[in-house]
Specification:
Number of helices: 8
CATH superfamily of the largest domain: Winged helix-like DNA-binding domain superfamily/Winged helix DNA-binding domain
CATH class of the largest domain: Mainly Alpha
Protein name: PadR family transcriptional regulator
InterPro entries: Tscrpt_reg_PadR_N, WH-like_DNA-bd_sf, WH_DNA-bd_sf
Domain Transcription regulator PadR N-terminal: 7-81
Strand order of the largest sheet: 1-3-2
Distance between the termini: 29 Å
Radius of gyration: 20 Å
CATH topology of the largest domain: Arc Repressor Mutant, subunit A
Shape: elongated
Organism: Paenibacillus rhizosphaerae
Number of strands: 3
Order of helices and strands: HEHHEEHHHHH
CATH architecture of the largest domain: Orthogonal Bundle
Length: 173
């Protein structure tokens, strides 16, 4: 899940407490998502128990103590594992895909191409379904047709972008 990846990457950048992790993720992706405590703190506990991060108590005068999280070597390995663990189910979710693309510099060329190919195949299937729906829609249903046309345009645009990423990945640009 991409939230696990985002949490670990924030901690990898520098040790942070929970609120800082949340704010940094929202600063980077605020328009895409909101990180709530029900996602963040269970993940931090899980990563601590797995040894991916360590938790250090930070005493503060006149305020409650904070816990600061630091990445471990196991956590760095977990980041690579999570980036590469891209499934057909993940290919259906734009944010899962976009997060992986933003981290392509961390993975092999073969895995980049695998991820791009999976997303492209999913989009091609989606496009065929939308076009079939558009062919069967009633001509007087103007707004439905507008939505379908806009969706087709977005999907076709993303397929073109993926084709360009594939070309750049193969050529080594």
């Amino acid at each position: 899940m991409y939230i696990d990846l985002l949490i670990l990457i924030q901690i990898e950048k520098s040790p942070k407490h929970g609120y800082e992790i949340k704010k940094e993720i929202q600063k980077d992706l605020g328009y895409l998502m909101d990180v709530n405590h029900n996602l963040l703190y269970p993940a931090l506990r899980r990563f601590t128990s797995e040894g991916a991060i360590i938790r250090k108590r930070n005493e503060q005068e006149g305020r409650p103590s904070q816990y600061v999280y630091e990445i471990t070597d196991a956590g760095r390995a977990k980041i690579a594992e999570l980036i590469n663990a891209f499934t057909e189910k993940d290919a259906k979710h734009e944010i899962e895909f976009m997060i992986r693309v933003s981290l392509f510099d961390r993975i092999s060329r073969e895995n980049r191409l695998r991820i791009l190919d999976m997303r492209k195949k999913d989009l091609e299937s989606l496009l065929a379904g939308i076009q079939q729906r558009q062919e069967g829609s009633v001509a007087h249903d103007m707004f439905l047709n507008e939505v379908l046309q806009q969706t087709i345009s977005r999907v076709v645009g993303e397929i073109r972008w993926i084709d360009e990423l594939i070309r750049k990945t193969i050529s080594g640009e």
